[in-house]
Structure formats: C-alpha cells, structure tokens
Amino acid sequence: MSLQIELEHYRQTLIVRLQGELDHHTADTVKTRMEEAVMRGNVNHIIMSFKGLTFMDSSGLGVILGRYKQITARGGKMVVCDLNPAVYRLLEMSGLFKILSIQDNETKALQSLEVAL
To answer: What UniProt keywords are attached to this protein's entry (predicted)?
Structure first.
C-alpha cells in the first residue's frame, strides 16, 4: 500500500494528514514535502494526524524526530493526534512521547497550540 499525504496550512500551523504506510519507501517523500512546506510558508507549529495511517516503521520515527527538531529550532511546537494502537505503541516504545504532545484529534491539537478555531 502507498501513502497519501495531505498538507494544510491553518494560520501558522502546518497540518499533515497521512493515510497508508509510513515506511522506508515513503519516508523521504514525507520528509521533503514537510520541510518544503515549513520553509516556504509562515509555519510556527506542526500537527501530524495519523488517522488513516495503517503502518509505521522506524523510518517514520525518523521523519517525526527530524521535523520536531526543525520546528522546535524555530521556536515552535509539534503535536501528533489520531493515533491507532499500533502507532501509539511504537511512539511510546521509542520514547518520543517524552518530547511530543499527543492529542485525541486535530481540534484538540489546535486548541493545545492555542491556535484559535
């Protein structure tokens, strides 16, 4: 299965919606598109929605960590939301929960960033 990537700018937040599999085949594409969107737009924060994500491996963790470093270097925050149990467990085991904010859905993620709806 492939990966669908949807990027949306909402105020100064980049919302990234992934559907499919985030693995070594698709990680570079996600990384590149997110980097370009952050550099091109007026982006202070990133929300990654994994609502349609069916699989993620360590390459996906690398994408998340790299974009986390990129956005925090700019003084921003990163939030992940809509995690299925398998992805939640992978993030938990990797220790990324210690640095990432986790929310139930995009609305709560936006609220946590204090971006008015």
So the answer is: Phosphoprotein, Sporulation
Q: Tokens 């007026």, residue?
A: 42
Q: What is the mean pLDDT of each run of 10 residues along the chain (117 residues)?
A: 91 96 96 94 94 94 96 95 94 93 96 77
C-alpha distances (whole Å) from 20 to each of 23, 44, 47, 52, 101 are 10, 26, 17, 6, 22
Collapsed DSSP state (helix, strand, coil) of residue 105? coil
Residue owning tokens 């609220």: 111
Q: Among positive and negative, which fits the CA dihedral 98, 99, 100, 103? A: positive
Q: How many CB atoms lie within 10 A of CB 18?
A: 24
Whole-prediction pTM: 0.93
Instruction: Name the amino acid, one letter, at 111.
Output: Q
Element holding 38 (H helix, E strand): helix 27-40
What DSSP character marks residue 24?
T
